[in-house]
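ugh ok so i messed up the first submission bc i forgot one of the chains. this is the corrected input, ALL of the components this time, i swear. 759 residues overall. if the numbers dont match what u have on ur side tell me asap before i send this to the collaborators (the ones from the other lab, u know who)
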Amino acid sequence: MPLLETRNLTKHFGGLMAVFELDLEIEAGEIVSLIGPNGAGKTTVFNLITGLYLPDGGDILLEGRSLMGLQPHQITALGVARTFQTLRIFTNMTVLENVMVAQHCRTKAGMWPAIFRLPGFRREEERIRQKAIERLSFFGTRLVGYRFDQLAYSLSYANRRRLEVARAMATDPKLLLLDEPTAGMNPHETREMTGLIGRLRDEMGYTILCIEHDMKVVQGISDRVVALDYGQKIAEGTHDQVADNERVIEAYLGRKAKGGADAPG
Amino acid sequence: MSTDFNHIGTDEWVAQEEARLREAEAAGRLSFRLRRAWDRIDPRLRLLAGLALAALVPLVVHNDYHLRVAGFTGLFISLSLGLNVVAGFAGLLDLGYVAFYGIGAYGYAMLASPHFDQHWPFWLVLPLVALVSALFGLLLGSPSLRLRGDYLAIVTLGFGQIAGILFLNLDRVKLPFLHLEKPLNITGGPNGIIKIDDITILGYAFDNVTRYYYLILVFTGLILIAIYHLDRSRIGRAWRAVREDELAAQAMGVDIRRLKLLAFSVGAGVAGATGVIFAAWQGAVFPPNFDVTILIILYSMVVLGGVGTIWGAVSGGLILSILPELLRNPEMARFIFYGTLILGGLLVFRHRKLRGLALLSGVILWGLAIKALLTWLRPEWLTQPEIPPSVARSFYAPLVKALNWWMVHPQNSQTVGNAAFVLALGLLLVAYRFKARFGYILWVPALYALTFVWETRLVQEPSITRMLIFGALLVLMMNYRPQGLFGQRRVQRQ
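and heres the new structure output, hopefully the right one now
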């Protein structure tokens, strides 16, 4: 059974058809890239999967279980985590707290154990802290040590992106949705992030669905690539297959005028 | 910088930062080390020390009135803490908060007074009424879950107003299906509920101000610790995440509906419990005790101290409870007024000290000039006020004498004072409008007119003065330190 499956997924905003009858299957342990021009509906697909939007048609199944109608936090508890294209870290909380909050759905200490500082509460807090430190250590020494107690707005852009991935990791997901993880990064940072995404699958065992524009990254990480345009799937396959697909080239570069067009990326 | 991505995060500077920080600390100045030592003391121990100090107050203050002020300070601090949970931690603008205070007070009043002839024991009523209050908090929160910002404010304000109206009018309740001989009197209407039982715990009756003061002290201390524990827990973090970015919080597994409801309930519960103690202490409850004025004062306390911080709520409560009392005494009020002017001047001119000095000397000279002119031309317009002997002996004597000598005192202080008020405002407006050109010069007569108004009209009328000082304090504060005394500068989502 595929880890994630969408069947005939459809979403429209008034007259605008954002996603149209999308069939997607992601097996456990895969890294799948979702590509397409801006406005193709990629982030909308993420929003649909994570429950921020209600689909107008079709279904989304996680390990065979339908996600329709579930609240976003319930979907996260089931094992789907995401990062945001426009970076939504908690700017006025510390780095460590950002990651600790993400474990909210995996912990259960309520109000009264917190007020009376019961032993169960204390143990859980320590576990939360250790897990957060672990997740942040995944990124080397960039986000550790004195960085723990720094407020998140003091981080540089690349560090914020890493923080957001660490935060998503702290929810202990099965499926990790990365929305343009290398946007705005220079080539060195992009290479680093590419390696990180591989490590996320190899070391942490996450299945990854990644929206990406940078074709080198797509080539470097993907087992499979799915291309969208105007809300519809126009190609699927390995990177090389998709990159040579005529419809994909047309979507990115427009219709051929004269002579040959280069492959995207 | 290594280009091999196997060496993630091997930035040399980052790797050495910890060592550098430790070195700096070891070599640090005494003030730096003292500060670190202070920060290392568990905040709960600090609280204990503060409480111990506060416990000494009745030993030093023997005036019953002052003890009442101290008690009210404690109540207000407790209320501010509860409000801080809703509006500070969770970021929900709850303008109906004072209604829960009233629900708690009326709850106790109905269960422990001759009104319904119920005399339930304190240990039972307190948790029960707090729970009921928390349930009302849920009632307010549930329909408001999707509202943000202004809309939430309006709905909660409506709730608060409705509660006030109910307190005022539920004394003639007709229930047609229960054939009663006369209408039900639930809340006592405008006359409120009186002769409320004193609190007795294990046979020990709290029947004078000092005993209530200690009860309030312990109560506030417990609330403080509970809220401190809540803040530094999974729930506190989740609240802050909801305040920061609801969408991202949801995506990270936080059930925002539950947390918002929890925030409303906890805030309401704290307010309800405080209401119980208030009702028992005052011995009576009336609708005006829970109106919008109290809400505004509470919000001022929280905002002044720093929204979202516990010490902010405490300090705000302290300042805004004690200050009005200090202002009752005209001499003390003068002291505070001029002190604030000087402080304000220091703040405004901290980078342009010369200009500040020039302004100060300008005002003093201007005052002297006016006095000289009027004394020479129209001495019959002026009087010289008497200084009562009690003041002449007090601490403020030099200040009062100097001010009386420097300032002109017109015969009919009311009309001239009022005119001067209008003139002062006009001058301030023009001075602001023409800031870049001759505005600065106009500050001299403007400040003089302001001081004139103060001396002739405001000093003697503490009720107006109090509100004006609140306003001025808040305006100053919000301009120079918008995050409040203990607040943290919050960065908008970038």
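quick check: Residues 256-282 of chain B form the longest helix (27 residues). that seems consistent at least. The beta strands of chain B are 112-113, 118-119, 200-201, 204-205.
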